[in-house]
Design goal:
With 81 residues, the protein is mainly alpha-helical. Helix content is 74%, strand content 0%. The chain has one domain. The longest helix has 18 residues. The protein is extended and about 50 Å long. The model has no long low-confidence stretch (mean pLDDT 93).
Amino acid sequence: MGNSAQKLYEEAMRLDPKERAELTGLLIESLEPESDPGVEEAWVAEVERRLAELDSGAVKTIPWDELRSKLYAKMNAADRR
């Protein structure tokens, strides 16, 4: 890490956790290429569609422990092949 990056890191570590999280998000966003036009709107529409499915009862959630167990079982079965 260069001197200026080290100094910035030390300054950032003096921020409270919420401010550090915000800074981290901004830095990550600065590395991402520009998204295609309409991508944000498409994600918003997808989230709204999924929420509507949950609210209507068309789909059900699965507890994390149950899902994790199923995933591990599938991975173990694939490893045995």
